[in-house]
Design goal:
single chain; Jelly Rolls; Immunoglobulin-like; 6 domains; seven-stranded mixed β-sheet; six-stranded mixed β-sheet; 1 helix; rod-shaped; disordered N terminus
Length: about 650
């Protein structure tokens, strides 16, 4: 049997509609996109009135319309003592979407007329005309017997020629709640004509109590043969799924019932961006490759028409959309690393997926989430990994968390130590991860296991040993400081030749085993701190102190010995070579001394610092007369000045 043509299919459908009665006027094939879609717009209440060419009813811009009135609104409620349904939205649920709300006229009348533009519909094409209608009356209104709306659709050319028999909805029933019902019929546009089409809606019921309704979403759509399409075969599934990053090749197979000469055009709608023709896709099947797929919703459908009409969207009918959903991989937020104490409970929790698989040190793969391990031990330390799977079966990249288990602390510390003052020694604590020493005095670092200690006095150091906050312990060590030997030979001593003086030595320090003076010359007892010294010349004595543990210390004292001065009381500067100068024995050993000589009148006739050249009885090279002269000698050694007279003879 030969397949029937598309035109024959349309004729059969039209003939069936003529003889099948009230509800037969339905497109049983595939539909195109709406060529005209009247949804009345959207916005705040009330909406704008319809043009006078559309309706001759009276427009009401606020409140509930009375008989013979309508309004355009996005909601309605409380009308006529709540005998109307409360409407909170239009049929499609668009935000603030408008609908036409009608309180019918008392007499049956045409309440809605719409005319297409010339060329807006394709010639010789079957179109479905449909509208959604809602009976506004509640069952308790009008004494329980409200008048029911009854509407006839009439489709004709501008010259009044009917394009299909009038279609009657019958009485539109009352519903317990808000119930929109779509009523539809179809018609065939004239062949080889692109003239305008006029659609009229007539309310056949009389006015009075009832006969109130809402109207929304009036559409014109092309109607054609049944198109079957599916993945793999015409009866295959209409849905396919893929995970992000995956690759696949899908084949959509389609068939058209009752048309042996269709023209094909595949369309795609990617992520709700709108349907667009796919260039070169004009066969009955479509191959769709995915490589490293990106998440999104990818829809495909087949449009058909006869001949060149395929280029016009107004003339096409379409298969039901087939959808490839590329599901994203689940994203698991980072999981924080954990440091736990021995015996603690480990809890690792992942999110972002529908199911999870955990692996870890010594752990068999488990779907437990959160992952809980009680009484954790060092064997549980390491890296844990979780793989999440979404409810669509897509697998996430593994996420890892590192778990550290603080080892058990075994505190230890070095034994007691001894140092000499000023020396250093190293302390040593063991068994922990963290250390804190107190006091910190004398330590180069109080937060390490083995600081260097240089205490000034005997100190007990305590190490606070920790393994990270789980267990703390304290251990102490004493560093005994032996004070170094200190020698003090005393202050400088001054004496005159022939005199004696005690040395004034002292010693300090720990573990002193002995002390002695060097040199031992002129000392009564070199091993005595207060030895008697009787030197004949200037001398430096050194006090040596010996410590059993910390070496030797020394200190020196200078003993200045002034020679005895013998001042002659006569001299004779007569040039005979005998006693020509005033020779003062040992005065030359006093280099800072000042010697002054005065005549009997108090005039200074001689002065010398030191006495390297004795006085020869002259004043500035001129001999002085014999006589008695007076002298003052300041030795500059802290001793009283020497004074007296000297007789100069000739």
């Amino acid at each position: 049997m030969r397949p029937i043509s598309f035109k024959l299919f349309l004729l059969i459908v039209f003939c069936i509609s003529l003889g099948s009665g009230l509800y037969a006027q339905t497109c049983n094939g595939s539909l195109g996109d709406p060529v005209i879609d009247e949804d009345f717009g959207s916005g705040a209440n009330p909406g704008p009135p319809l043009p006078g060419s559309v309706t001759n009813m009276e427009f009401l811009n606020a409140g509930c319309p009375n008989d013979g009135q309508y309004t355009i609104a996005n909601s309605s409620g409380g009308c006529f003592n709540n005998t109307w349904h409360f409407l909170t939205q239009d049929h499609t649920g668009n935000p603030n979407g408008y609908m036409m709300i009608v309180n019918a006229s008392y007499q049956p009348s045409i309440f809605f007329t719409q005319q297409t533009l010339a060329g807006q519909l394709c010639p010789n094409t079957t179109y479905e005309f449909a509208a959604w209608i809602l009976n506004l009356d509640v069952s308790s209104g009008c004494g329980g017997t409200p008048i029911l709306p009854n509407i006839t659709f009439t489709i004709e050319t501008t010259d009044g020629t009917l394009l299909s028999p009038p279609y009657n909805t019958g009485d539109i029933p009352i519903a317990d709640g808000v119930k929109w019902i779509q009523y539809h019929t179809f018609f065939i546009t004239p062949a080889n004509s692109t003239q305008a089409i006029v659609v009229k809606m007539t309310n056949n019921a009389t006015g009075g109590c009832g006969n109130d309704f809402a109207l929304d979403d009036i559409t014109f759509r092309a109607c054609g043969p049944v198109i079957q399409a599916g993945f793999g075969s015409t009866t295959g599934s209409s849905k396919a799924a893929l995970c992000q990053g995956g690759s696949a090749v899908y084949t959509i197979t389609a068939s058209v019932a009752g048309d042996n000469n269709p023209v094909y055009q595949w369309q795609s709608n990617l992520n709700a961006g709108g349907w667009t023709d796919m260039a070169g896709s004009t066969e009955s099947s479509l191959t769709i490759p995915f490589n490293n797929a990106v998440p999104g919703v990818y829809q495909y459908r087949l449009g058909i028409a006869n001949g060149s009409a395929i280029t016009s969207g107004q003339c096409r009918v379409y298969s039901q959309p087939l959808t490839v959903t590329v599901n994203p991989r689940p994203v698991v937020p980072p999981i924080a690393d954990q440091t736990l104490c021995l015996g603690d409970q480990l809890i690792l929790s992942a999110s972002g997926g529908a199911s999870y698989t955990w692996t870890g040190p010594g752990l068999a793969p488990t779907s437990q989430n959160p992952l809980v391990i009680n009484n954790i031990s060092p064997a549980n330390a390491g890296i844990y990994s979780v793989v999440a799977v979404s409810d669509s079966g897509c697998t996430a990249e593994p996420v890892q968390a590192r778990v550290a288990v603080v080892p058990q602390i075994v505190p230890g510390i070095s034994g007691s130590l001894s140092v000499c003052a000023g020396e250093s020694t190293q302390l040593a604590a063991t068994g922990g991860l963290f250390y804190k020493w107190t006091p910190s005095t004398g330590l180069d670092n109080d937060t390490i296991a083995n600081p260097t200690a240089t205490p000034l006095q005997t100190t007990t150091y305590t190490a606070h040993i920790s393994n990270g906050g789980c267990v703390d312990s304290s251990k102490s060590v004493t560093v005994t400081v032996t004070q170094n030997p200190v020698a003090d030979a005393g202050s400088e001593i001054i004496l005159f030749e022939g005199q004696s003086a005690k040395l004034n030595g002292s010693v300090k320090g720990d573990n002193i085993t002995g002390y002695y003076w060097t040199p031992a010359t002129y000392l009564s007892d070199p091993a005595s701190l207060t030895s008697l010294a009787t030197p004949t010349d200037n001398i430096t004595y050194t006090l040596n102190v010996i410590s059993q543990t910390c070496g030797t210390a020394t200190s020196t004292v200078f003993v200045r010995v002034y020679k005895k001065i013998t001042i002659p009381n006569t001299f004779s500067p007569n040039g005979d070579g005998i006693n020509d100068r005033w020779d003062i024995d040992a005065l030359i050993t006093y280099p800072e001394s000042i010697t002054q000589v005065f005549d009997r009148y108090g005039q200074q006739v001689f002065q010398s610092t030191g006495y390297a050249r004795p006085w020869d009885g002259a004043n500035n090279g001129k001999p002085l007369p014999p006589g008695t002269y007076y002298y003052i000698i300041d030795l500059k050694n802290g001793q009283p000045k020497l004074s007296g007279w000297v007789l100069m003879l000739k």
